[in-house]
Amino acid sequence: MIKELKEIKDGNHDIIAEFYKQYRGEFISWANNRYSIDKDDSKDIFQECLLDFYLSIMEDKLTEVNVTIKTYLFSLCKYKIYNLKKYKDKYVALERVFGITLVDEIRNESDINSAILLSAISKLPHKYQKLLTLYYIEENCLEAISNKLKFKNVNVTKKTKSMCMKLLTKNVREIEFNLKNQCATGS
Length: 187
Prior knowledge:
By secondary structure, the protein is mainly α. The protein folds into two domains: about 1-85, Rna Polymerase Sigma Factor, Chain: A (Orthogonal Bundle), CATH 1.10.1740; about 105-185, Arc Repressor Mutant, subunit A, CATH 1.10.10. The protein contains eight helices and no strands. It has helices at about 1-10, 15-35, 40-60, 70-100, 110-120, 125-135, 140-150, 155-185.
């Protein structure tokens, strides 16, 4: 194995192409039979794992393998499958919790977190939403926010922002709790 890794590191891309040809079909069947992953997702996962494998070698993160290359690649792929299934479960739960069909732009954990945050913000009173926009988006100082929102002084603005953040945190936790319950019950 070490010899093959060194050859890849030295620029022999034929080895990667050979791994691709040798294991791709078997992986697609294995992923479908064992995890019910469709052919397109299986192809994507295998390609991503082969790329991760290659990059790990080129970046000296992988210098030896104590198992067969097939076992190593399938192990990488298995974790990508778990992440895909976890993502899809959250996606379905998001649709159920919000009662809408989400757009295809939500493709990863970061997008799911953004959707949760946006939903939590939308549940805040309008004045809190405006305060967050002025502070985090428009980057106004507390004094400017105090003037724009007609608060008595900066201390009132600080206190209001603190209450706003507590409520936002509570909203996010409630949404995450509902999502976990939806994922767990499958309903």
